[in-house]
Amino acid sequence: MAHSQRDSLPRRRVLQGLSTLAAAGLAGCGGNTDSNGQNNGSGSDGQDSGSGSGNQDLGERVPEPVTVEYYANISWTSYQEAMAPVMTENMQELLGISVDIRPVAAGTMIENVITDKRNSHFSFFSSGMNPMRLDPDLMTRRWAIDWAGGNGQSNLANYANCSYSEPALAQGEATSQEERRGLVNEAHSIMSEDLGLIPVLPNILRGAYNEEQIEIGGLGQTGIHTTAPYPMIKSSPREGDRISVNASPSFLRAKNYFKQSAGPALARLNTFIHSPLAEYNAEFELIPVLAEDWEVTNEAKEVNITLRSATFSNGDPITPEDVKYTFEHVWSNVGVYPYADPPESYEIEVTGENSVRFTFDSPQVSFVATRLPRWGIVSKSAWTEAGANEDPEGFTPPFVNSGPFTVGEWTAGEFLSLNPREETHPVHNPDHGVDFSGYSEESAKMSAFLDGALDIIVGISSGSVERINEEFSAGQTVINPSMWPFYLAPQHPMAPVKFREFRAAVGQCFDRSLMNELAAYGNADPEQTLYATVFLQPHPWRPPEDQLYQMTDDVTGDIEGARQRLRDAGWGWDDQDNLRYPADADTSPLWPQGETPEAAPENFSCITSSGEVSFD
Length: 616
What we know:
616 residues; alpha+beta; globular
């Protein structure tokens, strides 16, 4: 837990000094864009040749502007907006050309990337604290070459590197954790050296509680944020028998919450309503819940699970048949449940009164860490009677719960009331109820917290943390490091970001120390993002630093060093200070826009002439 009492006057002076720059950087400056926001390179004849006085050794001009998109109107937008003026200033000083950093609706931004529209050179991302990402599979597999391009997959950088992809895909079929760690480290070391992503600043998790109204518990490493359920379970009200918490309307939207498209919401609702076989605790450790234990055998092709003695909220025992039904129901309805993700081939067998076996045709070394926590176990009889099999999309789930709470009132998108169950739960036995109220605006939930209407507030900005510290004596802020940085995802098929030295120079130029002051009020650790990796130090699969590329050793940035890096690689500035490519640079895209690397096998050694990915 951290309580920030930093003097805000220096920050205000810095903000005043950057106000003009911020207006230009966030509104868009320089260059021309078409009606769709697509950079057309026509700012000032970006394609002229390198001929003329002082330009003999240079290639064509780098078009203006260099563009960056970031999420508009989500919980971390204010964090990115506070960094944007510094990024703009640093990149403009480095490159000598205009930079356009602009907000885009979250869904639009994702669509732009996964359909390979190439609306911007960089996409500015972070990741939510989905506990399933404690396993490295998603954040390793997603950057493989077969997910790059306009195929709808979640390779958010459209990164395509054969050397990376081979170990990144192989780790998913490793037969031991030791073998797997070696492959994960190899893959991320390659991606780091290649600057597949450019970390900018660590994300931080921010929340607060009213110490006059509750005795806080369950903080651990997860703290108070939109994924962590434990403060709601393990805290105690000082008066009465309920705890009030804010939630996003999307968290409260679907009573059949298995249909959630947000992993953090799915994980938190599991802990409250339908307990999974295993879950990640407040220290990021995987612990048994409805499972007593498990054994992985046959080179990770078989998982045997023994269940605890436990009951649903109606008193019925939780049986292996319920486990089998839960997974088969979800895995057979991929179009209904966004996180279904079934193995290619599987069999689920009830092997005893309290045991069940999962069998696969290929190794599933990540199954325990990623699948066991993902789905709360439901009652086969109750869901079947409610019509789940006939209409999985539209049926109303019966709240015969395996979790520690029963559902009281649920108004979709607005309010959820949970009550402690009467039957003993094998892990969690809260002595109070929890009321979630939906808020879409930070100002509204902050007003409710400051007025005492909320006992716990989650997902707040750094500015709100400062306000609570300065104005609300009962408010105790809680700040924890995230496992993920904010990072620039270069859209790798297109120039200039397809060139490694350009990416390295951008990563070298940023004043991360100033961004920490402006965005995180000094509460982040900018040294962690000097290394080019998506994993921050809290993550258990972060590779050793000697296997990672260090962009700079200066948290204030090294713009002159970055400019010299470009010069050494043949880049330069002409007599009019226009940035130009090296004379021999091939600026054509790595594959046609909207297609995939398979459309350009001549550029990738692991793509055959028939367009298949092969590492033979």
